[in-house]
Amino acid sequence: MSSITRRQLALGALSALGATVLSTLPATAAFAQQGRVLRIGHQKGLLSLLKGRGTLEQRLAPLGVKVTWTEFTAGPVQLEALNVGSIDFGDVGEAPPIFAQAAGAPLAYVAATPPRPASEAVLVPKDSAIKTVADLKGKKVAFNKGSNVHYFLVKLLEKHGLKYADVQPIFLPPADARAAFEKGSVDAWVIWDPFLAAAEHSLGARVLADAKGVVNNRSYYFSSLPYARQNPDVTKVLIEELSKLDTWGSANRDALAAEFAPLWGLPKPAVDIAVQRSVYGTGPITKAILQEQQAIADTFFDLKLIPKKIRLLDAAVGAL
Predict the structure, then answer these.
(1) How high is the pLDDT of residue 185?
(2) CATH code, domain with 92
(3) Of the candidates 210, 227, 246, which is a domain's last residue?
(4) Whole-structure pTM over 0.85, yes or no?
(5) What is the 3-state secondary structure (H, E, C) of the chain?
(6) What is the pLDDT of residue 24?
(7) What is the pLDDT at residue 76?
């Protein structure tokens, strides 16, 4: 969920190109149908659990589709892999696909989670004198530039009568932001789960404000426009399997946290916090959802984080 720099794009392209090697498929339509491949890029999350279960492979086998998996450390690198043709599907937060579309990636939104506003928040030290959002005026606030929480902070400040220029932004990725927060080098930290839950659990950090009533904070599943248009049966099965896993996780949160804890490298009590407040589900992309993304894209353009205005409907598959 971090912003894309030129250097990240270059490194991402190299890593993505090395991650997957495409074989040449036979020319006949029938044989090509039997030799289809679904190349999934994933971060440490629900797709990782789906991989471990093997149910997707079982569903796609009758369609003659082989599934490959490549793990990535962040959404921007995943999306660069999509841009250079190394993966067909992945998971990502709100911000990275906006940067990818602005960079010309053939991105297609294929599914979305429900809103998860409780899963991102502004943290302050437990003994901080900062008691309200208005108290952030003039303070050093750490967050990942161009991320979902960047947008959240802008809208939170607006809601409380402040401007973005009223705070001192300190652009840091999560690990560095946590270190600065622990040392007292910043006054507040805007972050998402599971980093949010880990700081609450191990540092006793206090939530100043979460995103409820401010922004929705969804996650997305993406493909490329060509792949999504040519393989609707494959993406349909994939979304169905993710939805089943979401339904199970929502009803079995303790078991879900037990699976996520070693995956994320966090103690289970911290993961319990994140899992208990999350909302699980996988649904279709609607015009209203793309309008939410459009608002983020327009904000990022106004902040000069992307070089041009983009049209989110260009990343839609089919009629909305």
Answers:
(1) 97
(2) 3.40.190.10
(3) 210
(4) no
(5) CCCCCHHHHHHHHHHHHHHCCCCCCCCCHHHHHHCEEEEEEECCCHHHHHHHHCHHHHHHHHHCEEEEEEECCCHHHHHHHHHCCCCCEEEECCHHHHHHHHCCCCEEEEEECCCCHHHEEEEECCCCCCCCHHHHCCCEEEECCCCHHHHHHHHHHHHCCCCHHHCEEEECCHHHHHHHHHHCCCCEEEEECCHHHHHHHHHCCEEEEECCCCCCCCCEEEEEHHHHHHCHHHHHHHHHHHHHHHHHHHHCHHHHHHHHHHHHCCCHHHHHHHHHHCCCCCECCCHHHHHHHHHHHHHHHHCCCCCCCCCHHHHCCCCC
(6) 31
(7) 82
